[in-house]
Description:
Elements: H1 3-26, E1 51-67, E2 76-77, E3 82-87, E4 91-96, E5 112-114, E6 122-141, E7 148-154, E8 157-169
Amino acid sequence: MKKKPFYWFLFILIGFILAFTMIDLIYIEETSVTSPFNDQVKVITVPQHPIYEYVKVSKTVEYISGYAGNQPNQGTKFSTGDSFRWSEENGTKVTKRSAQHLFGNIDPLGGIFVNVPNEMDHFKLKVTKGNEVTKTAVYVKSETGDNKKFLYYIYPSNLYSREFTVVKVN
């Protein structure tokens, strides 16, 4: 029983010694190094963000045409009331056209329904997309004057038109 208080005392004493030696290490003063460069003032100019100028050069409409995705090679034969349902996210699907959730040819969920001419032949859906492409020159302007330097051309585009055609597969 007498050894337990001794060990507790020894444990606490070692803890205090370690704690005080660590405090001394934390509070050691830093010494400054003298150098012949300490008295010099360095001025560094930080470059500002360049100022870009965009100049539209020309506009054209480019058409891309092809069969919509998710279609079998032999086409699809439709039942009465079926049609193509096309959406940008999911491609083409064959769905029953339901009047309760359809307003005209556009589905409220973003799809477009395309009817087929008959139920006897196989059909594929062809999509023709027109993009309006604007050729734009990019210049960088200097901050001090009106000088500008040509960098490169960019070609941003916007959807101009989209046409759906039902094609009979032989």
